[in-house]
Write a structure and sequence with these properties.
Bound molecules: zinc ion
Distance between the termini: 35 Å
Helix content: 25-40%
CATH architecture of the largest domain: Alpha-Beta Barrel
Mean pLDDT: 92
CATH topology of the largest domain: TIM Barrel
Amino acid sequence: MKKFRLGWVVLFFPICVQADSFGQGQRPVAFTHAVIIDGNGGAPIENGVLVVRGERIEGVGPAASVQIPADAAVRDIQGKVILPGLADMHLHFSHGWNGKTTDLLGYQRHLNALLYSGITTVMDTGNSLPFIIQVRDEIAAGRLIGPRMYCAGPILDGADPSWPSISYSVTSVEQVPAVVRRLKQDRVDIIKAYGGLSDSILAALVREASKSSLALFVDQGWRNGSLELVMGDGVTAFAHVPDFPPSSDALNMMKPRQVKFITTLAVVESYSRRRLADLAFLESSLIKDTTPAAVLAELRAEAARVYDDSLSASVRENTQRLRMRSSNVKTLFEAGFLLAAGTDAPYPGVFQGEGLHRELELIVEAGIRPLDAITMATRNAARIIGGEQEWGTLEPGKLANLLVINGRPDQKIQDTRNIETVVLQGRIVDREALRLRP
Ligand SMILES: [Zn+2]
């Protein structure tokens, strides 16, 4: 065990990417003439000021209402937008483009791609437990620069797990208390429950997770959002928006219990292969600057695959599934449910970092206003994990995780991609240093 730990320390240290503090010491910084989108979904402030002191936001609001400290360094960003750093609340922090291969040593590239793309918080919903806990803890301790991370550790699945290398098999109700106790001891942030679990095991998990104050996120495929899963003391958070329209009985059962969902439209778009039909999106700097040529070549080969009957059937099924999931995003949003943005990266065409911007575009395509889509990747992302006291909106006292953007993402969601500056806990991220070196 000792040898194992030492091995990781050696790996982690030499490749940390430095972030620069604002000004000198604790000198505050005031962004002036900013358009401020605070993450709450309201109309932007057109001539706003935001003051950062240390790692937190000291003041934010219309210019006339915010006192600029006498010793502040002033950054006039005339007409540019400030919004909270974005969050991807469903990804798997692993290498590969196909959602299947895992190369844990690729972690630095993925951290870089996420931060480069303005993602300042992520939730890993299934991974190798010791690996993901250590990455999370190294970031939290400031020894590794990366987005704040929440994690599930392993996926809990049945006797024959879908993702064996990152799953625990739970095959009896009797096992459940010990499994949950162990995960709590191992300091996971959430529990992820998968499709192979029986109803009785799932019910036991709901009870034990609640006793241990651990949020339980469920993915049971087509049963997500169904009455049978949400009846009684049932599931209260789903890792995906349902693929079938929830019945009115299910909606009535879920509403008072404030059931929460993660959007994950990007992964279904990947299965539908819609994005692979035109690879022009690979020219995006968020992909080009962060992805090795070999990975892009593999993706091009995948896109050129000749369709056989089974692939054609899968494309038809997933095209319909994307329509259904998109329509459910709108239905659940309009019914007042909490939805947080998440991608399920990596999948073909779903990249760490860029994927979240694509997810926002798909949410808007589903009929959601751009400002509400941004709220799903900021305020709602924080709420779904109970982080709203610390991050998710631009308010005094919260961590200064923010982006300076060219354009108007409140009017054109694609503009979230035009990132000029990323600030992580009060420090400007050196985006140049995050770019992939040839
Ligand atoms: Zn997933």
